[in-house]
Amino acid sequence: MAEAATGAVRVEKVRGRSALTRCFARYPLKLIAPSKVGPASCDAVWLYALTYGGGIVSGDTISCTVSVGDGCTAAITTQASTKVYKAVGSKCSEQLLEASVGEDALLAVIPDPVTCFSTARYHQKQVFQISANSNLVIVDWFTSGRYECGEKWDFSFYKSVNHIFLGDQPLFIDSVLLENGSNCSIAEQMKEYNVIAMVVLLGPKLKSIQEQMQDEVRKLMSGQLRPPTSGGSLYAMRSQPPQRPQRPPLVASCSPFGRTGTGMVARVAAVSTELVYGFLRQHLAALEPFLGASPYSTS
């Protein structure tokens, strides 16, 4: 992938601080490195990944390599949702990311969601090579499309793959595939939910954030999924037709991974993008001391 890369990033220690020592991008990718995000005392490099034209055109391939050196901190985000335009024929739009994270380093990949237009075909793959004490945050999420305009789950193909390797050993392998044209459409499977998200937290620096998220998600779902208590007499209960339970507007789950539980993956489904933004703001706010700013903050 290196020869065809449309972007290349390297973060290394320079005079004891994390610094961007390489930042290359060519069409259709553009990388912006703001000079300051958060307080000057924070040792973190931020990068914004953009595409010319405000989205990914059918047939475009965007590939990027990222290297975060030992002890460094870097965050990669976007300025808005990644729009994937309508497919031309069977052409598929692609985004590929290969990242290496050094010892005691932290990489946070925290983009806005992918939004696929009607008939769009999109494939995303992210491969992370980590060390024993690396720290990694991955937010990978997508919407049903321009659902506020009535365009819900109308894209043709969506695939997102995330691989994490510790040395040559696979630590985390995940793949999401949605494709229309089968007996059951994507819209029929998703019901009223319009946003799907995955959050991965890995590494010793993030242990307390993992534990807090697991605890809060457990409390949230135990309250939302608890069956309602029935009051009144037995006659009243029998005379009323059984009510169909309503699905919560947001559902979430957490599970550890790795031999010693060093990683955690959270999965979220929600009826709106705003609900997921709120979830991410709340549960990733504890990253601010590392990154200098709270992910997905509205300020």
Automatic annotation (TrEMBL):
Higher taxonomy: Eukaryota, Viridiplantae, Streptophyta, Embryophyta, Tracheophyta
InterPro entries: UreD
Nuclease is among the record's keywords: no
Top-rank taxon: Eukaryota
Protein keywords: Chaperone
Similarity-based family: Belongs to the UreD family.
PANTHER family according to UniProt: UREASE ACCESSORY PROTEIN D
Region of interest: Disordered: 225-249
Protein name per the record: Urease accessory protein D
